[in-house]
Amino acid sequence: MTKIVQNLIEKDYDHEGVERESWEIWEREKLYDYQPDDGRKLFSIDTPPPYVSAAHLHVGHAMSYAQAEFVVRYKRMQGFNVFYPMGFDDNGLPTERYVEQTYNVNKSNITRERFRELCMEETAKGAKTYEEMWRGLGLSVDWSLKYSTIDPHCQRTSQRSFIDLYNKGMVYRDDSPVIWDTHFETALAQADVDTLTRNGQMHDIAFKSVDTGEALVISTTRPELIPACVAMYFHPKDERYQHLEGKEAEVPLFGHKVPIRTSEEVDMEFGTGLMQVCTFGDGEDVKKWKDDKLDTRVCINPNGTMTNLAGPFAGMKVEQARREIVKALKEQELVVGSKQVKQNVSVSERSSQPIEFVMAPQWFIRLLDYRDEFLKRSEQLQWYPDYMKVRLDDWVNGLKYDWNISRQRFYGVPFPIWYCKDCGNVVVAKENTLPVDPAEQPCPAESCGNCGGTEFEGESDVMETWMTSSLTPLVNANWAGTEGRKGDMSIYPMSLRVQAFEIIRTWLFYTVAKSHFHHDGLPWRDCMISGWGLNEQGKKISKRDLEKFTDKEGYNRYDPHSVIQKYSADALRFWAAGSHLGHDLRFNEKDVRTGRKVVIKLWNVARLCNILLEGFNPSAPRPDLAERSVEDRWVQIELAKTIKTVTAGFERYDYAYGREALERFFWGVFCDNYVEIVKDRFWNPERYSEELRASAQATLWESLRVLLALFAPYLPFITEAIFQRLYKPYEDIASIHVAEWPEEVAELEAAETPDGMALILDLLNATRELRSQNKISQTKVLEGIRIDMDGADDGTKHMVQELAGSIQSATRCKEVVYGPADYATAVDGVKLEIVAEA
RNA sequence: GGGUCCGUAGCUCAGCUGGCUAGAGCGCCGUCUUGACAUGGCGGAGGUCACAAGUUCAAGUCUUGUCGGACCCACCA
Predict the structure, then answer these.
(1) Is the reported ipTM for this assembly greater than 0.90?
(2) What whole-number distance in Å separates Cα of residue A67 and Cα of residue A653?
(3) How far is the CA of A604 from the C1' of B37 (A)?
(4) A398 C-beta less than 7 Å away from strand B
(5) Which parts of chain A have pLDDT scores under 70?
(6) I want to staple A18 with a disulfide (CB 3.0 to 4.6 A). Which of A707, A721, A829, A838 is the partner?
(7) What pTM, to 2 d.p., does this model score?
């Protein structure tokens, strides 16, 4: 084997060139391709399939995906067979909204077919942008494992899931009132609802007792629901109203009569203690309507306008009707009082419109019956960080409804079912025909098994998007048995789910529920919950930030592509590694610049190592550690401690912990002290023995190599570039990213700082400070240093004399002399003075 | 109303099972250019660890309470 020669590493670091070059190697070597059954332990990871609206892509996204990827690269180097797919979530309301806004269309003015086309087009565009972005960031995804939630494979998986649940009796159809989005004109699930606090008007409105004609005053923030009023309630113990029980009240303006009933749930302190129930204002109304079998009077259409029941107010939007009805009531002096109140309004997460309750038949998955089992699953799952568990538990404990999976929309996975036109009996598709679209394909049954009817109608609703994304582990494991896909049920359950906290109640919960139903187990062993990348003010990075801060050249500090171009992908990743698990991280361009500094420092120190290693033969035997100099032993001990720390961090997915330790070693120990000290052995060879140079070369060669490996998960490009230039010819691996993770060395980890090294560093620091005080360059060779050991004990005196060579070398002076000095060093009883001129 | 996380230098944050004379990066001030790096080196200033009480030989670290911030859940006639 050849010896190391000069100039293996170019003077200037060109990150774009290195990024290109690295990808060429990675693709040529198929480094990230998953090879099934290769005998190694498996590590599989389930990361979020992002929505297609790629225009909103910002550094926060880059942050969370990079964080998951640090772990992936670590596991790969640990020798795991890595299964790392990437998905795109391109069905469902987010995509539909994006298309509605981009093309200015809505459900009423476009055909289902055309709308689906537009969605597919946008989906493809978005996926492309994302893929470029992820590659730019260096994500080591196996792209042949790509899925998109609207592709046939995912549709097959979702439909199979539905059929399995149908056969197990875990789905049912019901036409109770459901949470409704009047903008998208579709039903929603409980998890799709957000709460908004806003100012509202609370009105006291006079109804009339049919019996006595007395005024019965109720308080409401929603007077527009008066036409839908079906009952009046008071608390059974409320003395004021005992005489009303069983009587009727007349509804103002609309004149219909409603029964007066009692309920324990009425709060006597609220308003007058009288309460109206309408079909339907909120969940309470629905409950009373069900329990007490009240009338049904619907005054709001699915599109948020008033029905004919509202008489003169029919056709108005809800807000307008509210104003007009109050006006009309005021004219008749039926509004007894009004006050402003802070109210919490339930709104659709996707449209931000207040939700209504609408009656439309829907498919539900049973959740309420399984709460305890979900809580047990939550217990079994390994949470990182562990406190995130309570978020799932809270959600499970607060469940009020079963999971409504029907959406009255266009763009989603169809339900694999048909209904008999005569009796409504359900016919389910055969599993080997999936995916099916019942809106277009004929029913597989000849006649109805129930009534013998021969006419069928396919279900036109589609499944909500979480119905598919809750299956990502099973999509990856090819549960549906799609031909030609890599990955099978042997990867299931997966090793790790990575996601942010805000979708614990949706993505995480639904995935756990599905896995519980389908396979009676967890979908993954561990879950790692990340925070958000926020802007400098600690707020979510918005679309507006992306528009507002883009300059004429198209540079935007929140745009990952811009940032990568300017600072390098490694620099952006370095920033991303700075947030501790579960914690948000404020973005700051300066921190990315710091990342770039680290990258360049690594490049330059590798160049220096290259120079110092000239003539070194990596294949030849190297001196034992015990025979090396104190400085060399010291750096190896510090490195071993760093390996231990970084490894321990990664084992609990704490990449930030590792990054910190690594940076501390790299900068503080390796660059600023170790290399600074040993380079003199090469600049002034006449003062040192061959053995000392050999010792330094061996140590430099080994420790830089370990550093590259430790940095590799964080900085995949620069580490690859240095590895290829310096180490590749001597190693039988294609890339640093398939190198073995540095081994922990127990003896070194536990070792104390070698005798004397602390002394050398203390004297070096003292010299540095004296140089600084006297305005002498740190690199200038001093005539000498004078050490005053009058106050020191014999052990120290002895050690100083023994280490005089190292001290002289570290402090970069021509000679060490002993005599009176003034500057007190950190070493007990030792003072020091520098001699600059002869 | 219940819960979780957080409150440490001007800023962003470390500080894991209590031992700290409290750290890093950025920023600031000073200073240093003949063989890796000025995209740099070295030095310096800057903190009663939100507040109060308690446990302990010892508390930034544990307990309780108060205040402030972020978020989750609930309520939402």
Answers:
(1) yes
(2) 9
(3) 6
(4) yes
(5) 1, 53-55, 838
(6) A721
(7) 0.94
